[in-house]
Amino acid sequence: MKKKLSLLLIMMALITNIASAQTQPMSAQTSAEKVAILLDKSGYSFRKASNNVWVVSFTGKQIADIQVVITTTPDLLLAGITVAKKNRMRPTAEFFYKLLKLAHAYDLVKVGLDTDDDLFVRIEAKLRTMDVDEFKAYVKQTAAAADEIYGQVKPLISVQ
C-alpha cells in the first residue's frame, strides 16, 4: 500500500511539473524581467518591495497615498491595491450591493474581497505582448479605479 501511494505521489508530481512547464511562456525573458524593464521605461517612481514585487505611488482625490502593488505570474501582470482593511468595513447588505454594482461598472478591473476579507481593486493582464504604454495605462487605471471606488464606499465603511 505504501509503495502504491508513493508511486502515485511521484506520478502526480511529474504530471504537475509537466503541466506547469507547458503553461510557462515560451520566452527567454521572464515576466519579472519584463516588468522590471517596463517599470524602468515607464517614468514612474517605484520601489522594489521584494523579489518580483514592486510598488508605484500615486496621489488620489479620495486616497492621499495610493500604493499600487505590482507582481507577476509566469504570463500575467498583476497590479492591485488594498482599498480598505476588513476591520474598517461594516459588512452590511448595502455595502455588498454597492461592491457588486462597482464590480460590474469597471472594465478590466476586479473589485472584491481577498483571502483576508480586505477590499481590493486589481487588474490582471497578459504580459507577452505588453508594451510600455499599455503597462502604464494598466497601472494608472488600477490607481484611478481604487481612488474612485474608495470614494463610493467611504460612506459605508468606518473611517478610523
What features would you describe in this structure?
It is a single chain. With 160 residues, this protein is α+β, with helices and mostly antiparallel strands. It has one domain (26-156): Yope Regulator, Chain: A. 43% of the residues lie in helices and 25% in strands. It has four helices and six strands, in the order H-H-E-E-E-E-H-E-E-H. The chain has helices spanning 2-23, 31-42, 93-105, 132-153, and strands at residues 46-50, 53-58, 66-72, 76-84, 109-113, 119-126. The protein has a six-stranded antiparallel sheet. A hairpin with a 5-residue loop joins strand 5 and strand 6 (119-126). Helix 2 crosses helix 4. The radius of gyration is 19 Å and the shape is elongated. The model is unreliable at 1-14 (pLDDT under 50).
Percentage of residues in strands: 25-35%
CATH architecture: 2-Layer Sandwich
Q: Could you list the spans in which at least 5 consecutive residues all have pLDDT below 50? A: 1-14
Q: Measured on Cα atoms, how large is the radius of gyration?
A: 19 Å
The name CATH uses for the topology is Yope Regulator, Chain: A
Q: Report strand order across the widest sheet.
A: 1-2-3-4-6-5
User: Total number of helical segments?
Assistant: 4
What's the structural blueprint in terms of helices and strands?
Blueprint: H1 2-23, H2 31-42, E1 46-50, E2 53-58, E3 66-72, E4 76-84, H3 93-105, E5 109-113, E6 119-126, H4 132-153
Antiparallel strand pairs: 1-2, 2-3, 3-4, 4-6, 5-6
Name the descriptors.
160 residues, alpha+beta, Yope Regulator, Chain: A, six-stranded antiparallel beta sheet, 25% strand, disordered N terminus
